[in-house]
Amino acid sequence: MKRILEVLSEEINITDTNEAQKRPKVPEGSVEYRSVAFKYKPDAENYIMKNISFKISSGETVGIIGGTGSAKTSLVQLIPRLYDVSEGSVLVGGRDVRNYTMEDLRSAVGMVLQKNVLFSGTIRDNLKWGDKDASDEEIIAACKAACAHDFIMSFPEQYETHLGQGGVNVSGGQKQRLCIARALLKKPKIIILDDSTSAVDTATDQKIRQAFKENLRDTTTIIIAQRITSVMDADKIIVLNDGKIDAVGSHDELLAGNEIYQDVYYSQQKGAAV
User: Fold this and answer.
1) Concatenated DSSP letters for 165-206?
2) pLDDT tens digit string along 247-263?
């Protein structure tokens, strides 16, 4: 009880600034990092990431690859201000993220994590958390893009299928696809997929990426993945190593000249061959 009270009384240190109240909504999905450094606590000795600078144009698809502890997830969490930068700035739509209201910024960013939450209720109810006013046509379109429509239609009650708490009556891959569809219903300017297709097979992963390319041409897509196949078709790929950018380039460029990318690619090729 004491610990619960401590959490409830904790003051939120990420809030809307006075400047944010004067700003319009997010105009488009471009992202820019300018000399960004980050550590979880101001008095921490070591930075989680440092000297991060890159640009993503609106509508681009960008992959992020790196080993465990390379700060991949921390990097993208700065976009919707789940954390604030310690140094430098993150810009969305040409403006510092701190100059938007939290509501406007986060409504423009969809995030799908490796482990997502489904609630007790029907599949339709869960999807409408993305947009409570979504029409049946919009729900079906989002589910088709996420490769979820076919398995939903295989259930006797289809979209009215009741999900247990946490989605215990669907598989891990089905859960991930439902969460992707829910994020798509937000119609975000930016969608971040953080290892969110890890539980689906490579063929389904490829179908989802193809549907994104066809249906989300104006949406900036950022894909964090362990599998090279999930990012190899991206417009560019960022290779992270120990909280720093090791390289940025296309699949072919990185395969020709980046040691970290080469190691990951060839180790996965060997695994696939076995």
Assistant:
1) TTSTTS-HHHHHHHHHHHHHTT--SEEEEESTTTTS-HHHHH
2) 999 999 999 988 988 88
